[in-house]
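User: For a benchmark we're assembling, each entry needs the component sequences followed by a predicted structure for the full assembly. Here are entry 17's components. Please fill in the structure.
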Amino acid sequence: MAVSRQRRVTLASVDSNERLREILDQSAKLFDQRGYDRVSVEDIASASGIRKATLYHYVRSKDDILVLLHQEFMHLVLDAAEAESRQQLDPRSQLVSVMIDILALMKTHRGHVRVFFEHHRDLPTQARKGIRADRDRYEKIVEAIIARGISTGQFRQVDVRLSTLGIFGMCNWAYQWYKPSGPMSPEVIARFFASCIVDGIGKR
Amino acid sequence: MAVSRQRRVTLASVDSNERLREILDQSAKLFDQRGYDRVSVEDIASASGIRKATLYHYVRSKDDILVLLHQEFMHLVLDAAEAESRQQLDPRSQLVSVMIDILALMKTHRGHVRVFFEHHRDLPTQARKGIRADRDRYEKIVEAIIARGISTGQFRQVDVRLSTLGIFGMCNWAYQWYKPSGPMSPEVIARFFASCIVDGIGKR
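Assistant: Structure for entry 17:
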């Protein structure tokens, strides 16, 4: 299924479209390796095993790809977080789940992750607003976990916003150092970070 | 003092050279705002109030500037960490000091910070090795603080490497969200993060 060059391709069309899937995956990989600005549409077409003209049947521009990668990344984390919210776990367990989700992406979607963290400002204005709204929604989910932990007495009376930012920092920063070939799984790392943030590294 | 175009300018010459200082500061600001690849030597010259030909009396290329910004950043954090090591603080206090140092850079050197975190791979090979060695040295200093805390009994028997990466994550990630105009000082944020990581957010 080729998409019209006149309108922006939507995330919904990716799942049912193997070639578009391949274009996105190859783009994520190339952007991760070289940086967004250093990858051309020709590079993406070539890595995807198609001609540039063919690629333009699927996306209008490199910007379209950037937007789709951002949307896909947010979709992944929001879906996971919302599914966990429905499980009604206790706040600590829910926090651990969210941290595992983020760390797992370092293994499964490293290209998406770098693009998401480093190329937000390269998004077209309208798309940037949408992604920012999604990101805010995600942050609110994690803030709500902390707030619930405080109200149930599982957590101390900490600054909800700042502790959320600290937790994101621990997890998100792994995109800078995590090696999928390393000895520890994302889940092991996430559980360790959760124990640091919940129990502290200080001796009780 | 103009530098020869034949050899790479060194960090030592920056302090005594107001124009080079201005070039670096303007570059850091532009790279932060637009991204390294989207800033030209002309842009830097113009922001520094000099002509492009004059800029080439001070640095040989944009790459030279990137290297100097990386070196300067490492110099700042290493100097601070080594000065604190000499103060023989207890491990917890030393950890708090290191965390304050990093957060303070988000206010004083935000351009340097983004360049350092996002453009490591854009460094020329030789320079990249030097910066990596400095970064490893810095990480070792923080790992040593954690190890000492474990041996004095102030900290639990945690994974030293992984807790160091978690601490860096909390602090470094602030480059993504910290606003110098916000209500909290870098020191307040750093102390809060230190209390999260040492005491935990869980109720004891």
